[in-house]
Hints:
This protein is of the alpha/beta class. It has helices at residues 14-32, 49-59, 74-84, 104-114, 131-147, 164-171, 180-187, 210-224, 227-255, 263-295, 324-333, and strands spanning 2-10, 36-42, 63-68, 87-92, 118-126, 156-163, 191-198, 302-307, 319-320. Helix 2 (49-59) links the parallel strand 2 and strand 3.
Amino acid sequence: MTALSIVVPCFNEEPCLERLHQRLSAAARASVGEDYEIVLVNDGSRDASWSTMRRLAADDPRLVAVNLSRNYGHQLALTAGLDLSRGDVVLIIDADLQDPPELLADMLAKMREEQADVVYGVRRSRAGETAFKRATAHGFYRLLSRATDADIPVDAGDFRLMSRRAVDALMAMPEQARFIRGMVAWIGFKQVPIVYNRDQRFAGETKYPLRKMVRFAFDAITGFSSAPLKLASHVGLALSISSVLLIAFIGYLWLSGQSIQGWTSLMLVVVVLGAVQMFVLALMGEYIGRLYNEAKRRPLYIVQEIAGGGSRPAAPLGVISKSPADDAESRVDQPRT
Ligand code: UDP
Ligand code: MG
């Protein structure tokens, strides 16, 4: 077993890779000597990331380059990397060097001192990110901690150091829609924060456009809370109370011989009720869609190729496809019957 694994999901990060490799190697060496591995996961990049990874892996026996069969998204790429890691402790870090690898030494020390299973990075500042990203992230983390039961730390990303047993516990969770920082909070053990300043991206631009951010936020909330489903009962209760009041009012008008006319008020009620119903239906749809996805029980990812790092055991949550060459060899070895 290796002392330390560093797992990095990469999507179109070619310009960062060389510098990333240097800084990760230096940080790992300073902390654990030569007993480490770096697992780079290529999440279906459309640039030259994979060829660069292969080249780096050819020169560095400590580098394991994993090529997924397509783009699965940040959280699944990370899952693949964790599945294939072998270290006693595992560092998760982004490829863009926004999170400083040099913090590793402090994280290891903290893990040892506090006997913690998880040391997670909390962002004190976020350099070079748009005001919009900062504001949405700020709102999101606070909404999340109010909506969910798991104690998900505020302003913490996936940058964290985990013990082997924490990683194994995480890998025992089979869900498709993964919100890893929340899942890590759910597993328990002792988890301690370490505060740091987030740098700018080393190169390239964010791989989280608004669409992916919204999807991510939905996964987080539907994955950790059924509170939105209870919205319907609250709205329903409020509407029933107002309808009783309305009936009493109409009865009073009828008895006193008055009548009211009004197209506007009628239309307003119809439209508001329609909107509320559709909204609640959509919320239910989110959860049903999630159930549907989970019920299919597909593997979470498919590994097309692994370069360097020797042979890896079959990953429990994904599939490692065999290359046609492997098949040809095994066919030759087997006696025909
Ligand atoms: N990433 C990935 N697959 C994707 C999107 C992102 O593996 O589909 C990786 C990306 O290469 C980076 C990490 O996830 O290492 C975080 O992405 P990014 O830095 O763009 O997010 P931000 O820091 O802007 O939130
Ligand atoms: Mg980033």
